[in-house]
Amino acid sequence: MFKDIFKKSKKKKYVTVKHMKDNDVPEGIMVKCPKCEKIMYTKELQENLNVCFHCDHHMALNAYDRIDALMDKSSFVELDAQVETVNPLNFPNYEEKVEKDKAKTDLNEAVVTGSGTINGYKTGIAVMDSRFRMGSMGTVVGEKITRAIEHATRNNMPFIIFTASGGARMQEGILSLMQMAKVSVALNRHSEAGLLYIAYMTHPTTGGVSASFASVGDINLAEPESLIGFAGRRIIEQTINEKLPDDFQTAEFLLEHGQLDKVVHRNEMKEVLTTILKLHNRGEA
Ligand SMILES: [Zn+2]
Protein backbone atom coordinates (compact mmCIF):
# COMPACT_ATOMS: atom_id res chain seq x y z
CA MET A 1 0.00 0.00 0.00
CA PHE A 2 2.77 2.48 1.00
CA LYS A 3 4.78 1.45 -1.99
CA ASP A 4 2.05 2.80 -4.29
CA ILE A 5 1.94 6.15 -2.51
CA PHE A 6 5.66 6.67 -2.99
CA LYS A 7 5.47 5.68 -6.59
CA LYS A 8 2.77 8.24 -7.26
CA SER A 9 4.48 11.14 -5.57
CA LYS A 10 7.82 10.33 -7.16
CA LYS A 11 6.34 10.61 -10.60
CA LYS A 12 4.85 14.05 -9.91
CA LYS A 13 7.73 15.57 -7.97
CA TYR A 14 10.86 14.88 -9.95
CA VAL A 15 10.50 16.94 -13.07
CA THR A 16 13.89 18.00 -14.39
CA VAL A 17 14.21 21.37 -16.07
CA LYS A 18 16.02 19.79 -19.00
CA HIS A 19 13.02 17.74 -20.02
CA MET A 20 10.28 20.18 -19.27
CA LYS A 21 7.83 21.20 -21.93
CA ASP A 22 5.51 24.20 -21.81
CA ASN A 23 2.76 22.60 -19.80
CA ASP A 24 5.19 20.79 -17.50
CA VAL A 25 6.43 23.97 -15.82
CA PRO A 26 5.30 23.50 -12.22
CA GLU A 27 2.95 26.38 -11.62
CA GLY A 28 4.18 28.85 -9.04
CA ILE A 29 7.68 27.38 -8.70
CA MET A 30 9.17 28.07 -12.10
CA VAL A 31 8.44 30.52 -14.89
CA LYS A 32 9.28 30.44 -18.57
CA CYS A 33 10.41 33.70 -20.15
CA PRO A 34 7.97 34.50 -22.98
CA LYS A 35 10.81 36.00 -25.04
CA CYS A 36 13.86 33.70 -24.76
CA GLU A 37 11.86 30.71 -23.41
CA LYS A 38 14.41 29.95 -20.70
CA ILE A 39 13.08 28.64 -17.43
CA MET A 40 13.75 30.34 -14.10
CA TYR A 41 12.75 30.00 -10.46
CA THR A 42 9.80 32.30 -9.76
CA LYS A 43 11.31 33.45 -6.48
CA GLU A 44 14.62 34.45 -8.06
CA LEU A 45 12.80 36.17 -10.91
CA GLN A 46 10.67 38.14 -8.43
CA GLU A 47 13.82 39.22 -6.59
CA ASN A 48 15.04 40.57 -9.94
CA LEU A 49 11.76 42.54 -10.30
CA ASN A 50 10.48 40.13 -12.97
CA VAL A 51 13.29 40.95 -15.41
CA CYS A 52 14.62 37.88 -17.24
CA PHE A 53 18.22 37.02 -16.24
CA HIS A 54 19.00 35.77 -19.73
CA CYS A 55 17.52 38.30 -22.17
CA ASP A 56 16.53 41.28 -19.96
CA HIS A 57 12.88 40.94 -20.99
CA HIS A 58 10.71 42.99 -18.61
CA MET A 59 7.73 40.87 -17.57
CA ALA A 60 4.68 42.46 -15.93
CA LEU A 61 5.23 43.64 -12.37
CA ASN A 62 2.16 43.95 -10.22
CA ALA A 63 1.31 47.28 -8.60
CA TYR A 64 2.14 46.42 -4.98
CA ASP A 65 5.42 44.71 -5.92
CA ARG A 66 6.47 47.82 -7.82
CA ILE A 67 5.57 50.05 -4.88
CA ASP A 68 7.53 47.75 -2.53
CA ALA A 69 10.56 47.84 -4.82
CA LEU A 70 10.44 51.59 -5.26
CA MET A 71 9.28 53.22 -2.06
CA ASP A 72 11.00 53.37 1.30
CA LYS A 73 9.91 50.65 3.68
CA SER A 74 6.54 51.39 5.34
CA SER A 75 6.42 54.89 3.84
CA PHE A 76 3.59 54.17 1.40
CA VAL A 77 0.14 55.29 2.50
CA GLU A 78 -2.59 54.10 0.18
CA LEU A 79 -5.52 56.34 -0.77
CA ASP A 80 -9.08 55.30 -1.68
CA ALA A 81 -8.43 51.57 -1.52
CA GLN A 82 -12.13 50.90 -1.12
CA VAL A 83 -13.69 52.88 -3.98
CA GLU A 84 -16.16 50.49 -5.57
CA THR A 85 -16.71 49.93 -9.27
CA VAL A 86 -20.35 50.11 -10.40
CA ASN A 87 -21.99 49.16 -13.66
CA PRO A 88 -23.28 52.52 -14.92
CA LEU A 89 -24.45 51.26 -18.33
CA ASN A 90 -25.78 47.93 -17.05
CA PHE A 91 -23.33 46.20 -19.33
CA PRO A 92 -24.01 42.44 -19.35
CA ASN A 93 -21.72 40.37 -17.07
CA TYR A 94 -19.59 43.38 -16.11
CA GLU A 95 -19.99 42.91 -12.34
CA GLU A 96 -18.97 39.24 -12.64
CA LYS A 97 -15.84 40.15 -14.59
CA VAL A 98 -14.84 42.77 -12.03
CA GLU A 99 -15.43 40.33 -9.16
CA LYS A 100 -13.34 37.70 -10.90
CA ASP A 101 -10.43 40.11 -11.36
CA LYS A 102 -10.72 41.23 -7.74
CA ALA A 103 -10.34 37.64 -6.60
CA LYS A 104 -7.49 36.94 -9.04
CA THR A 105 -5.42 40.03 -8.24
CA ASP A 106 -6.30 41.04 -4.66
CA LEU A 107 -6.85 44.54 -6.03
CA ASN A 108 -10.09 46.54 -5.93
CA GLU A 109 -9.37 48.13 -9.32
CA ALA A 110 -6.70 48.49 -12.01
CA VAL A 111 -4.74 51.16 -10.16
CA VAL A 112 -3.18 51.59 -6.71
CA THR A 113 -2.69 55.20 -5.55
CA GLY A 114 -1.14 56.95 -2.59
CA SER A 115 1.99 58.69 -1.43
CA GLY A 116 5.25 57.92 0.28
CA THR A 117 8.98 58.52 0.00
CA ILE A 118 11.64 57.33 -2.46
CA ASN A 119 15.05 57.49 -0.80
CA GLY A 120 13.62 60.15 1.49
CA TYR A 121 11.93 62.27 -1.20
CA LYS A 122 8.17 62.68 -0.79
CA THR A 123 5.98 61.91 -3.80
CA GLY A 124 2.44 61.05 -4.79
CA ILE A 125 2.11 57.94 -6.93
CA ALA A 126 -0.35 55.93 -9.03
CA VAL A 127 0.57 52.47 -10.30
CA MET A 128 -1.65 50.76 -12.86
CA ASP A 129 -1.86 46.97 -12.93
CA SER A 130 -2.53 45.26 -16.27
CA ARG A 131 -3.86 42.10 -14.61
CA PHE A 132 -7.11 43.85 -13.70
CA ARG A 133 -9.36 44.24 -16.79
CA MET A 134 -6.19 44.77 -18.88
CA GLY A 135 -5.44 47.90 -16.87
CA SER A 136 -8.33 49.58 -18.62
CA MET A 137 -9.44 52.99 -17.40
CA GLY A 138 -12.96 53.13 -16.06
CA THR A 139 -14.53 55.69 -13.74
CA VAL A 140 -12.86 54.30 -10.61
CA VAL A 141 -9.38 54.27 -12.17
CA GLY A 142 -9.86 57.88 -13.32
CA GLU A 143 -11.33 58.97 -10.00
CA LYS A 144 -8.58 57.34 -7.92
CA ILE A 145 -5.81 58.88 -10.03
CA THR A 146 -7.52 62.30 -9.95
CA ARG A 147 -7.92 62.24 -6.17
CA ALA A 148 -4.29 61.15 -5.71
CA ILE A 149 -3.06 64.02 -7.94
CA GLU A 150 -5.24 66.49 -5.99
CA HIS A 151 -3.80 65.11 -2.76
CA ALA A 152 -0.28 65.66 -4.11
CA THR A 153 -1.17 69.21 -5.20
CA ARG A 154 -2.55 70.07 -1.74
CA ASN A 155 0.56 68.66 -0.11
CA ASN A 156 3.11 70.21 -2.49
CA MET A 157 4.35 66.86 -3.73
CA PRO A 158 5.54 65.71 -7.15
CA PHE A 159 3.49 62.98 -8.79
CA ILE A 160 4.47 59.80 -10.65
CA ILE A 161 2.10 57.63 -12.71
CA PHE A 162 3.17 54.18 -13.85
CA THR A 163 0.88 53.37 -16.75
CA ALA A 164 -0.06 49.89 -17.99
CA SER A 165 -3.29 49.93 -19.90
CA GLY A 166 -5.29 48.56 -22.76
CA GLY A 167 -7.06 51.94 -22.96
CA ALA A 168 -10.51 53.09 -21.97
CA ARG A 169 -12.85 50.53 -20.39
CA MET A 170 -15.39 49.60 -22.99
CA GLN A 171 -18.02 48.48 -20.46
CA GLU A 172 -18.25 52.05 -19.13
CA GLY A 173 -18.45 53.72 -22.55
CA ILE A 174 -18.27 57.51 -22.67
CA LEU A 175 -17.84 57.67 -18.89
CA SER A 176 -14.40 56.09 -19.25
CA LEU A 177 -13.43 58.51 -22.01
CA MET A 178 -14.33 61.39 -19.66
CA GLN A 179 -11.57 60.21 -17.33
CA MET A 180 -8.95 61.27 -19.88
CA ALA A 181 -10.05 64.88 -19.51
CA LYS A 182 -10.63 64.67 -15.76
CA VAL A 183 -7.14 63.33 -14.99
CA SER A 184 -5.57 65.82 -17.41
CA VAL A 185 -7.31 68.75 -15.68
CA ALA A 186 -6.05 67.55 -12.28
CA LEU A 187 -2.53 67.28 -13.75
CA ASN A 188 -2.81 70.80 -15.15
CA ARG A 189 -3.71 72.20 -11.71
CA HIS A 190 -0.79 70.24 -10.25
CA SER A 191 1.46 71.79 -12.90
CA GLU A 192 0.11 75.32 -12.26
CA ALA A 193 1.16 74.85 -8.64
CA GLY A 194 4.70 74.45 -9.97
CA LEU A 195 4.89 70.76 -9.19
CA LEU A 196 6.69 68.02 -11.09
CA TYR A 197 4.86 65.21 -12.90
CA ILE A 198 6.70 62.13 -14.13
CA ALA A 199 4.90 59.82 -16.58
CA TYR A 200 6.41 56.36 -16.49
CA MET A 201 5.07 54.06 -19.20
CA THR A 202 5.24 50.29 -18.90
CA HIS A 203 4.11 47.52 -21.23
CA PRO A 204 1.49 48.01 -22.63
CA THR A 205 0.37 51.65 -22.58
CA THR A 206 -2.26 52.10 -25.27
CA GLY A 207 -5.55 53.78 -26.22
CA GLY A 208 -7.00 56.60 -24.14
CA VAL A 209 -4.34 56.31 -21.44
CA SER A 210 -1.50 56.82 -23.93
CA ALA A 211 -3.47 59.70 -25.45
CA SER A 212 -3.87 61.53 -22.14
CA PHE A 213 -1.93 61.39 -18.89
CA ALA A 214 0.72 58.89 -20.02
CA SER A 215 2.20 61.30 -22.55
CA VAL A 216 2.05 64.65 -20.79
CA GLY A 217 4.72 64.28 -18.12
CA ASP A 218 7.24 67.03 -17.44
CA ILE A 219 9.51 64.02 -17.79
CA ASN A 220 8.38 60.98 -19.78
CA LEU A 221 10.05 57.66 -19.05
CA ALA A 222 9.35 54.11 -20.21
CA GLU A 223 10.47 50.56 -19.62
CA PRO A 224 12.47 48.79 -22.37
CA GLU A 225 10.50 47.29 -25.26
CA SER A 226 7.16 48.48 -23.89
CA LEU A 227 4.37 48.74 -26.44
CA ILE A 228 3.22 52.37 -26.41
CA GLY A 229 0.67 53.69 -28.87
CA PHE A 230 -2.87 54.88 -29.45
CA ALA A 231 -4.37 52.61 -32.11
CA GLY A 232 -3.12 49.10 -32.88
CA ARG A 233 -0.59 48.39 -35.66
CA ARG A 234 -3.15 46.60 -37.88
CA ILE A 235 -5.63 49.47 -37.75
CA ILE A 236 -2.97 51.99 -38.75
CA GLU A 237 -1.60 49.78 -41.54
CA GLN A 238 -5.08 49.31 -42.95
CA THR A 239 -5.85 53.02 -42.73
CA ILE A 240 -2.69 54.37 -44.32
CA ASN A 241 -2.23 51.33 -46.53
CA GLU A 242 1.47 51.05 -45.67
CA LYS A 243 3.64 48.58 -43.79
CA LEU A 244 4.99 49.94 -40.51
CA PRO A 245 8.55 49.39 -39.24
CA ASP A 246 9.01 46.39 -36.90
CA ASP A 247 9.93 48.50 -33.88
CA PHE A 248 6.99 50.88 -34.41
CA GLN A 249 5.23 51.74 -31.10
CA THR A 250 8.06 50.49 -28.91
CA ALA A 251 9.61 52.63 -26.17
CA GLU A 252 12.91 52.68 -28.11
CA PHE A 253 11.19 53.95 -31.27
CA LEU A 254 9.51 56.75 -29.32
CA LEU A 255 12.82 57.71 -27.69
CA GLU A 256 14.49 57.90 -31.08
CA HIS A 257 11.68 60.15 -32.34
CA GLY A 258 11.78 62.56 -29.43
CA GLN A 259 8.61 61.48 -27.62
CA LEU A 260 10.38 60.06 -24.58
CA ASP A 261 13.14 61.39 -22.36
CA LYS A 262 14.63 58.06 -21.35
CA VAL A 263 14.12 54.31 -21.51
CA VAL A 264 14.92 53.01 -18.05
CA HIS A 265 15.88 49.44 -17.14
CA ARG A 266 13.75 48.31 -14.21
CA ASN A 267 16.80 47.72 -12.05
CA GLU A 268 17.61 51.42 -12.39
CA MET A 269 14.04 52.62 -11.75
CA LYS A 270 14.63 53.69 -8.16
CA GLU A 271 17.97 55.36 -8.87
CA VAL A 272 16.66 57.35 -11.86
CA LEU A 273 13.53 58.51 -10.02
CA THR A 274 15.58 59.47 -6.96
CA THR A 275 17.88 61.61 -9.10
CA ILE A 276 14.93 63.36 -10.78
CA LEU A 277 13.15 63.97 -7.46
CA LYS A 278 16.38 65.26 -5.93
CA LEU A 279 16.97 67.68 -8.82
CA HIS A 280 13.45 69.09 -8.52
CA ASN A 281 13.28 69.06 -4.75
CA ARG A 282 12.22 72.38 -3.31
CA GLY A 283 13.54 71.67 0.14
CA GLU A 284 10.43 70.01 1.61
CA ALA A 285 11.88 66.49 1.82
ZN1 LIG B 1 14.30 35.84 -21.36
Number of helices: 10
**What is the CA–CA distance across the termini?**
68 Å
The assigned CATH architecture of the largest domain is Alpha-Beta Complex
What's the gyration radius in Å? 21 Å
- Fold-level CATH name of the largest domain: 2-enoyl-CoA Hydratase, Chain A, domain 1
CATH superfamily of the largest domain: 2-enoyl-CoA Hydratase, Chain A, domain 1
The number of distinct β-strands equals: 10
Helix content: 25-40%
Ordered list of secondary-structure elements with their pairings:
Blueprint: H1 2-13, E1 30-32, E2 39-41, H2 42-47, H3 63-70, E3 77-79, H4 94-105, E4 111-118, E5 121-128, H5 139-154, E6 159-165, H6 173-192, E7 197-206, H7 207-210, E8 219-222, E9 228-229, H8 233-240, H9 251-256, E10 262-263, H10 269-279
Parallel strand pairs: 5-6, 6-7, 7-8, 7-9, 8-10
Antiparallel strand pairs: 1-2, 3-4, 4-5
Helix pairs in contact: 5-6
Catalytic activity: N(6)-carboxybiotinyl-L-lysyl-[protein] + acetyl-CoA = N(6)-biotinyl-L-lysyl-[protein] + malonyl-CoA
Binding site for Zn(2+): 33, 36, 52, 55
Zinc finger (C4-type): 33-55
Task: Spell out the key features of this protein.
single chain; 285 residues; alpha/beta; 2-enoyl-CoA Hydratase, Chain A, domain 1; 2 domains; 8-stranded mixed sheet; two-stranded antiparallel sheet; 10 strands; globular; binds zinc ion; nucleotide-binding; fatty acid metabolism; zinc-finger
